[in-house]
Design brief:
This protein is of the alpha/beta class. The N and C termini lie far apart (about 75 Å). The longest helix has 18 residues. The strands form 3 sheets. A 5-stranded mixed sheet has the order 2-1-3-4-5, covered by helices on one side. It has a 5-stranded mixed sheet with strand order 11-10-14-12-13.
Length: about 550
């Protein structure tokens, strides 16, 4: 039995970089020095506790009370143990010096950062030990897989997902139930299920956090999906830059096999499933589904024309279901609570919740999961706390290099697929970068265009050459040597690259430029040199 007093230490990569491992060692030493053992006080490594900018994060649980602390040093471990053991949870039983030492590090769990969130995908993050299948099972993981296999047909599972209104969280927002039906209804033969965990957007760390924090939940979601579409083999495609996520995912797969939750005759049924990890070499274009599939097959990851779509002809020519980490991880909760429960959250066309990686010029950086339709202003100013120095927000960039920059006057826009597209941006996988008043928008556009230049696979000329030319034009604006004709060239070239590129990388690469031209055109105009005749007559002053 776990002890009634528990200290949960964030062991995700972000907190590790802030010193969480040294802090946990110090906490174990302080517990031993106090003459306690794990039966009296459990010190448990967990995944992301969400307010990442305050790491290392530690939560202290006792009956009727949970406290969260951030930024503690190993030297404060003794004070934290004393606080965790405070008799009856009463403040007065803790020495004043101890209480004072911890006061500045305490994070308000009733504050807007946590109170306005609705954890569905993240409900196990920070609660379970990501390296313990026993802890995951105790939390309820794999219960829905067992129920599905023993009580529901594949058609009933797909119906529940359709009713939920879940749309793909990888960026395009394609209806998940419709995609599952497309795969399931293909002619008899092999099928595959693939998780796209190739999270390459600058400022995005949602998938990494889930993989590091709750890998068994992802495995359960993939297994349910495989049963629903008739697949018996699957792959998780993870970028090599996520070593801790890869390590924990591989461990979780090994543990699931040892418990017969993967393999043959799962839960005594005829359902069989093999899942494997494939590590990508870091090519951003492999986040595009056709390039990803080629990479899994051991070929160079380059986008292919569609149709046929992967749901019809994917891995080795077989129907293949591709969803991302967040989509698969939402599935167990949908099956547990029902599709109608999930559909009750969000908006008419964007159901459920969405996880964002909130970063940039904002007080509270970290993971945020809110119902679809939540205004951007609520996310960045209320949950995020606004710009640290109190100055106004200038813009919010969503969707990574494929998205756009939304100006402060549009922050009351609800977060959903259609509303963001109308503003010239997109949901993307969920990166959300806040920009302060000193940010130069042409520089932002150049930064993202440089990323697209470096990550283009080079297969099609519009992307290979067009992004380079766009980057060169943006150099002229940033260096204030552009002329008014460059404005027209920039807009025309953006439209050409957007319309004629082969895959989503090239098609969306102009978005940061087009959105900043739309909302911050005056900054581009200010960077243009005035004609010589205007300067001579004083009109250019």
């Amino acid at each position: 039995m776990p002890s009634p007093v528990q200290v949960r230490c964030c062991d995700a990569s972000g907190c590790r970089s802030a010193g969480s491992q040294a802090l946990r060692t110090a906490l174990e030493g302080a517990r031993d020095a106090a003459g306690l053992d794990p039966s009296q006080l459990t010190i448990k490594p967990v995944g992301c506790l969400r307010q990442c900018g305050s790491g290392p994060l530690v939560a202290c649980d006792r009956p009727g009370r949970t406290r969260l602390f951030g930024g503690l040093s190993p030297g404060q471990a003794g004070a934290l143990i004393a606080d965790a053991l405070a008799a009856g949870g009463e403040e007065e039983t803790v020495p004043a010096t101890t209480a004072d030492a911890l006061a500045a590090h305490r994070i308000d769990l009733d504050g807007p950062f946590f109170a306005l969130q609705r954890p569905v995908v993240l409900e196990g993050c920070g609660q379970v030990n990501p390296e313990s299948i026993d802890d995951a099972i105790a939390f309820g993981t794999y219960a829905q897989l067992q129920r599905v296999l023993q009580e529901l047909s594949p058609e009933q599972v797909r119906d529940e997902v359709r009713r939920s209104g879940l749309r793909g969280r990888g960026g395009a927002g394609y209806p998940t139930g419709l995609k599952w039906d497309t795969v399931a209804l293909q002619p008899p033969g092999p099928r595959y299920v693939v998780c796209n965990a190739d999270e390459g957007d600058p400022g995005a760390f949602m998938d990494r956090s889930v993989l590091e924090s709750d890998p068994h939940r992802l495995i359960e979601g993939m297994a349910i999906a495989a049963y629903a579409v008739g697949a018996e083999r699957g792959f998780v495609y993870v970028r090599a830059e996520y070593p801790l996520a890869i390590e924990r995912l591989r461990l979780a797969l090994q543990q699931a096999r040892s418990r017969h939750l993967l393999g043959n005759h799962i839960h005594g049924t005829t359902f069989n499933l093999r899942l494997e990890v494939r590590v990508g070499a870091g090519a951003y274009v492999c986040g595009e589904e056709t390039a990803l599939l080629l990479s899994i097959q051991g070929q160079r990851g380059m986008p292919q024309p569609r149709p046929p779509f992967p749901a019809q002809s994917g891995l080795w020519g077989a129907p293949t279901l591709i969803n991302n980490v967040e989509t698969f991880t939402a599935v167990p909760a949908i099956l547990r609570e029902g599709g109608d429960w999930y559909a009750a959250m969000g908006t008419e066309h964007s159901k459920g919740t969405k996880v964002f990686a909130l970063s940039g010029a904002v007080v509270n950086t970290g993971l945020v999961e809110v119902p679809m339709g939540t205004p951007l202003r609520t996310v960045v100013e209320v949950i995020g706390g606004g710009v640290p120095d109190g100055s106004p927000i200038k813009a919010v960039q969503t969707g990574g290099p494929s998205g756009g920059c939304i100006p402060a006057e549009r922050l009351d826009t609800p977060v959903d697929y259609e509303s963001l597209l109308e503003l010239g941006s997109m949901m993307g996988s969920g990166g959300m970068v806040v920009m302060g008043s000193s940010t130069s928008m042409p520089e932002v556009a150049r930064h993202f265009m440089g990323f697209s230049v470096n990550e283009s696979c080079g297969k099609c000329i519009p992307c290979r050459a067009g992004t380079v030319q766009l980057a060169q034009l943006l150099d002229r604006f940033v260096e204030r040597r552009a002329n008014p004709e460059d404005m027209d060239r920039l807009d025309a070239l953006c439209q050409m690259v957007k319309v004629t590129s082969l895959c989503g990388l090239g098609q969306s690469a102009p978005n940061p430029v087009l959105s900043t031209l739309r909302w911050f055109r005056h900054e581009y105009e200010a960077a243009c040199r005035q004609p010589a005749d205007a300067l001579a007559t004083g009109r250019g002053r």
